[in-house]
Amino acid sequence: MKNTAIQPTATEKVMRENDFIVSKTDLKGRITYCNRIFIEFSGYTEEELLGSQHNIVRHPDMPRAVFKLLWDTLAAGNECFAYVKNMAKDGSYYWVFANVTPSYDQQDKAIGYLSVRRKPKPEAIKLVAGLYQQMLDAERQAGTQNAIAASSRILTNLLAEKALSYEEFILSL
Question: What is the C-alpha to C-alpha distance for residues 9 and 58, in angstroms, rounded to an integer?
Fold first, then answer.
């Protein structure tokens, strides 16, 4: 379970070029595997991570609409790419470029999700951080009940303006 007592700090951890953060979850988002790089950047022990919801590392600067898009994409059986700001156990943060994909058993039934995260491009983070701030502002103004819809509109309008799909937009950064 996410520890809401953790306060975000301005301390950034920057991934190294050859780092890959890898985790697996069950269908409900509970961590079933985490590699040593995930443990290092999150600041949690393997014991703390295993069985926890993946949102244990969710940073409050992340719009809820991004996670709705992620879960909707995965539920449709597709992989999803996203820039994500995560929060470590000590309140520091680290940006990742994530690829999340469903995992299947031998009967082609979804059994969980595999996420591989790597160091994002700094110029992409500048663009995404500004977009996410606009989305967060829309969420706050709309209130809890309408937050995701309001935030999603910001993203949808940007994609329409650029005539790109979400995936095309993310991969173009």
Answer: 13
Q: Name the band, by pLDDT with cuts 50, 70 and 90, for residue 5.
A: confident
Q: How far apart are CA 29 and CA 23, in angstroms?
A: 10
Q: Is 133 helix (H, G, I), strand (E, B) or coil?
A: helix
Task: Give strand pairing partners of 30.
Answer: 53
With a CB cutoff of 8 Å and minimum separation 6, the contacts of 133 are 61
pLDDT tens track for 90-118: 999 999 999 999 999 999 999 999 999 99
- Contact, 119 vs 17, CB < 8 A? yes
Fold held by 20-172: Beta-Lactamase (3.30.450)
- Rounded Cα distance between 78 and 169, Å, is 16
| This model's pTM is above 0.85 | yes
Give the whole-angstrom CA distance, residue 59 versus residue 5.
12
